[in-house]
Design goal:
The protein is of the alpha/beta class and 149 residues long. It is built from 2 helices and 8 strands, in the order βββαβββαββ.
Length: 149
């Protein structure tokens, strides 16, 4: 799995012009699932992301966690994180997991967020969505389960 984690002051996702999820301060997580991902890696990824200490403390250091600042989580499925642009000008998405696997792991990730104390706002798997965010910092990290094995 791959995730792009952005520290935000606010973020929202809309589908067909209707607001589907919205948070204030917290993490916007764009989540992609690969063909070799497992439920165990999903759990590790959620624990890693939700435990990151990237919010500023009283000394202006990135030292506080999501729970320390009472932050929220907005999760949006993003198969394009597995896009391959190494050949030609049009990306190939053969590296992304098929929906049969990806949907289950996306939904597990949402449950893991809940288990860890963060009721996630979220988009809809496979939907055409509009995502808005007000980045804070900006602070954006890429977290890949290949690095967590």
């Amino acid at each position: 799995m791959k995730a792009v984690v952005t520290r935000v002051n606010s973020a929202s996702v809309s589908i067909d012009g209707e607001l589907h999820g919205k948070i204030g301060k917290g993490f916007l997580i764009l989540l992609g699932v690969g063909p070799d991902d497992t439920p165990e890696l999903c759990t590790k990824l959620a624990e890693k992301i939700l435990g990151l200490r990237v919010f500023r403390d009283e000394n202006d250091k990135m030292n506080l966690s999501l729970s320390d600042v009472g932050g929220g989580v907005l999760v949006v499925s993003q198969f394009t994180l597995y896009g391959d642009v190494s050949h030609g000008r049009r990306p190939s998405f053969f590296g992304a997991a098929k929906p049969e696997l990806a949907i289950g792991l996306y939904e597990q990730f949402l449950r893991e967020c809940e288990r860890l104390g963060f009721a996630p706002q979220h988009g809809e798997f496979g939907a055409y969505m509009q995502v808005e965010s007000v980045n804070d910092g900006p602070v954006t990290l890429i977290v890949d389960t290949n690095d967590l094995k």
